[in-house]
Amino acid sequence: MEGVACPLCAGLPHKLLYERRDHTHYVTDTRFRIVRCRDCAMVFVNPRPDPGEIEAFYPEEFYEA
After folding, report:
1. Which long-range contacts (CB under 8 A, 24 or more apart) does 44-48 make?
2. 61 contacts: CB under 8 Å, gap ≥ 6
3. Which of 23, 30, 36, 59 counts the highest number of beta carbons within 10 A?
4. pTM of the predicted model, to two decimals?
């Protein structure tokens, strides 16, 4: 997982809104942190899976669609 700045304004301060597991595919027990940027109020996942980790969160059936 990689910590990131806000994708909209590049702000670094953020507020944790909640944590939750993936509610669509349920392939891991990873809990995702949903945060709100304190500068522009955009909501995003932080930290997020890096490019080398992202496919672990999608089951094989996802790609068949």
Report:
1. 44/4, 44/6, 44/7, 46/3, 46/4, 46/14, 47/1, 47/2, 47/3, 47/4, 48/1, 48/2, 48/4
2. none
3. 36
4. 0.77
